[in-house]
Design brief:
Serine Threonine Protein Phosphatase 5, Tetratricopeptide repeat, mainly alpha
Length: 114
């Protein structure tokens, strides 16, 4: 559904999946993709919550760096600049060398983070 542009259906489907299989090995990825669907819908508050769920579900796994970046980016998009800056800085602290660090640094520059 996400690939076909049915973002509402994708968000709902990923929500159902994470409710059906809480704590499952695919849950962090499902939360992340739910965030992507909400982002595509322009629902940035819901996207931020989904990215937080993705990061909270697995803080060291393969989706963690991108989920933390997207959480920070989403917080900036909804006007929570201070929280966004703190979160985006954590990407580099926790995942040095990951591609998400460059994205986080760019977002921090755009937000005027110190």
């Amino acid at each position: 559904m996400l690939d076909n542009g049915d973002y509402r259906g994708a968000a709902d489907g990923f929500a159902t999946f994470t409710q059906t299989y809480p704590g499952g090995p695919l849950s962090p990825r499902a939360h992340y993709l739910r965030g992507e669907a909400f982002e595509a819908l322009g629902e940035m508050t819901n996207a931020a919550r989904a990215f937080l769920d993705a990061f909270s579900a697995d803080q060291v796994g393969p989706t963690a760096p991108d989920a933390l970046f997207k959480l920070g980016w989403s917080l900036g998009a909804i006007g929570q600049t201070q929280d966004a800056c703190i979160t985006l800085a954590e990407v580099g602290n926790r995942f040095p060398g990951h591609a998400a660090v460059a994205d986080a640094q760019s977002a921090m520059a755009n937000l005027g983070c110190r």
